[in-house]
Structure to design on (227 residues):
């Protein structure tokens, strides 16, 4: 079982370059999320989606865009990378089943912007 | 706003020592509470959860009790092992439509043999 798969695992970008991070889940989950993890700050929500064709802003959406054209994929785009976007990015998915929904996380993408 | 405050690390313990990692949350509504664990080089995975006051979540020897009166969800383990070395995150689930999680800052635990 693959679960949640993120591509790529590592990337170095120059300031101003663009890139897309891919998240794929094979659990038929409705909800998908993109978080960034920075030292001493835990994980912060960038964007999320509650279903195919829908997206919404999280806590720190500036500088990022997302798309959910297929239920199993959630793409995170950086149009013009900045050093402040150096971080580890995690995708997660879940399906709400009452209270206390478990989120399943990918292994992360380590992005460095120089 | 909604927030989760977690004990700062790093925490270093000897094997078989008692572990407590403190976590408090803002009392907006009645959120579900979680502890997630992140082993080196991996994503987060659910360790335990509690969905209402006085619930106790438990897994792999870890426990945490949902304390409404103190707005706390402290993680405990009676005897840690080297394999418990990881980063531990306390989190609350927002009751809105998206069920997104708000995380604490994480606590790095190192257990020495």
């Amino acid at each position: 079982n693959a679960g949640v798969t993120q591509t790529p695992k590592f990337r170095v970008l120059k300031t101003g370059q663009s890139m897309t991070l891919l998240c794929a889940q094979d659990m038929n989950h409705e909800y998908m999320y993109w978080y960034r993890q920075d030292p001493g700050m835990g994980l912060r929500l960038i964007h999320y989606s509650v279903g195919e064709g829908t997206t919404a802003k999280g806590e720190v959406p500036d500088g990022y865009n997302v798309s959910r054209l297929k239920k199993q994929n959630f793409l995170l785009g950086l149009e013009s990378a900045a050093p402040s976007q150096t971080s580890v990015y995690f995708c997660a998915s879940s399906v709400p089943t009452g209270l206390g929904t478990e989120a399943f996380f990918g292994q992360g993408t380590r992005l460095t912007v120089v | 706003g909604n927030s989760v405050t977690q004990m700062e690390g790093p925490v270093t313990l000897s094997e078989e020592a008692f572990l407590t990692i403190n976590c408090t949350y803002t009392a907006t509504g009645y959120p579900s509470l979680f502890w997630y664990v992140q082993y080196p080089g991996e994503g987060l995975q659910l360790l335990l959860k509690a969905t209402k006051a006085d619930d106790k979540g438990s897994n792999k020897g870890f426990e945490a009790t949902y304390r409404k009166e103190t707005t706390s969800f402290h993680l405990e383990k009676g005897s840690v092992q080297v394999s418990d070395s990881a980063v531990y995150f306390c989190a609350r689930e927002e009751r809105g439509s998206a069920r997104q999680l708000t995380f604490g800052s994480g606590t790095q635990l190192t257990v020495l043999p």
User: Anything to note?
Assistant: Residues 31 and 97 of chain B are 13 Å apart (CA to CA). Chain B has no helices and twelve strands.
